[in-house]
């Protein structure tokens, strides 16, 4: 699955703070480059120092259990179900947005396709590239790079990378694996396998950090994909971390996490 931006069509993308109490959904522009179109937004000076994340649209959220006809079609095609979102975005929150407040960081929120029942993503990877330009007077903000939220549980992942104070574009490729060793609770304590599977069983949100400095000029997100396993043979790499249990009456799902 991929998203292509066209001038004037932002495909429902937004920027949110960590608590998701503030949401920026307007003021974006779509730019055309040699790599394709990219979603852009540029007034971080109105948002203060709190990190923000890209929030993906509704199409990537909600119930992700496939219908029997869809599963049959996928089996016939022998294709691995893989969520693949390609976009490059520059962020610029504007004062005109009613739900944006100063000092709130921004996050990219992934669309509905990346949420819902995602136990099959255990052991797989979330891959993306972030790029940003910070002002020379800003200070670096230390925060988690990705947050996943589900079943009233929040887990945070970091991928250390060297960053300069500001003035030049910083670009980094991320590969975050969905195994408990790569995730922590917000209080810094390690996540357990149970924590991670509970989040993936009913994934409400995936938030990717968009704010890296107290003085942001632009921020972009591109080359986004998320691995999801399927039961049929596809010819691609096996997903060895995903269990498939024999469920008692009344339960279903790879880990018997859902009620019939």
UniProtKB/TrEMBL annotation:
Location of the Laminin IV type A domain: 8-244
Keywords for this protein: Disulfide bond, Glycoprotein, Repeat, Signal
Annotated segments matching region Disordered: 61-102
Annotated InterPro entries: Laminin_IV (IPR000034)
Pfam family, one: Laminin_B
Ranges of compositional bias, category Basic and acidic residues: 61-89
Descriptive protein name: Laminin IV type A domain-containing protein
């Amino acid at each position: 699955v991929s998203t292509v931006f066209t001038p004037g069509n932002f495909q429902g993308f937004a920027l949110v703070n960590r608590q998701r109490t503030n949401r920026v959904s307007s003021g974006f522009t779509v730019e055309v480059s040699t790599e394709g179109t990219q979603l852009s937004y540029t007034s971080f000076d109105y948002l203060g120092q709190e990190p923000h994340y890209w929030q993906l649209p509704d199409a990537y959220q909600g119930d992700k259990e496939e219908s029997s006809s869809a599963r049959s079609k996928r089996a016939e095609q022998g294709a691995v179900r893989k969520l693949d979102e390609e976009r490059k975005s520059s962020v610029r929150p504007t004062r005109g947005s009613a739900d944006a407040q100063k000092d709130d960081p921004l996050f990219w929120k992934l669309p509905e396709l990346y949420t819902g029942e995602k136990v099959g993503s255990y052991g797989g990877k979330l891959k993306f590239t972030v790029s940003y330009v910070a002002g020379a007077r800003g200070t670096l903000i230390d925060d988690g790079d990705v947050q996943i939220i589900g079943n009233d549980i929040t887990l945070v992942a970091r991928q250390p990378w060297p960053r300069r104070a500001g003035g030049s574009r910083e670009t980094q490729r991320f590969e975050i694996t969905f195994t408990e060793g790569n995730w922590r609770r917000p209080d810094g304590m390690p996540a357990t396998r149970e924590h991670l599977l509970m989040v993936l069983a009913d994934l409400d949100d995936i938030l990717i950090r968009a704010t890296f400095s107290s003085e942001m000029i632009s921020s972009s997100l591109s080359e986004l994909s998320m691995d999801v396993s399927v039961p049929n043979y596809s010819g691609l790499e096996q997903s060895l971390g995903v269990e498939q249990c024999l469920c008692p009456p009344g339960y279903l799902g790879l880990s018997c996490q859902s009620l019939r």
